C-alpha cells in the first residue's frame, strides 16, 4: 500500500482541503525506515501533499522548492492524522500541516513552478 486510507475530506472553496488519514502499519513507507521503530519519512509526507494537491485541488504543477519545513513529531504506524493543504495561487505555494490529536506534527510551504 502506497497511500494512506482517506477517512474524510472537507473542502473550503477550491483552494483548501482537510483530509483525515489512517496510517496503516502496512504502508510501504514504514518498512525499513527504522525497522525497530518505524516512522513516516518526511519526504513521503511532502510527496503526499503534492499527490493530494494534484488529485483534489487540480494542481498539475512541478515542485520548485520548500520553505519553513518543520518535523516536530514523528508520524507513527496506525495513527489517524489530519492533513490540511492550502493553495496560495498568487504565490504559487502550497501550505501544509499534519496534525495528530490537535497537535502539529509537521508543517511547511512548497513552492510550485508557475
UniProtKB/TrEMBL annotation:
Listed Pfam families: ApeI-like
Organism domain of life: Bacteria
Protein's recorded name: Hydroxymyristoyl-ACP dehydratase
Range of residues in the leader sequence: none
InterPro entries: ApeI-like, Dehydrase_ECs4332_prd, HotDog_dom_sf
ApeI dehydratase-like domain span: 13-109
Gene3D superfamilies per the UniProt record, alphabetical: Hotdog Thioesterase (3.10.129.10)
Amino acid at each position: 500500500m502506497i497511500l494512506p486510507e482517506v477517512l474524510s475530506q472537507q473542502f473550503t472553496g477550491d483552494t483548501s482541503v482537510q483530509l483525515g488519514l489512517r496510517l496503516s502499519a502496512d504502508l510501504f513507507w514504514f518498512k525499513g525506515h527504522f525497522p525497530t521503530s518505524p516512522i513516516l519519512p518526511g519526504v513521503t509526507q511532502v510527496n503526499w501533499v503534492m499527490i493530494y494537491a494534484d488529485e483534489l485541488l487540480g494542481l498539475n504543477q512541478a515542485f520548485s522548492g520548500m520553505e519553513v519545513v518543520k518535523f516536530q513529531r514523528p508520524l507513527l504506524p496506525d495513527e489517524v492524522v489530519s492533513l490540511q493543504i492550502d493553495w496560495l495561487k498568487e504565490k504559487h505555494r502550497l501550505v501544509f500541516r499534519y496534525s495528530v490529536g490537535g497537535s502539529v506534527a509537521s508543517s511547511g510551504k512548497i513552492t510550485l513552478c508557475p
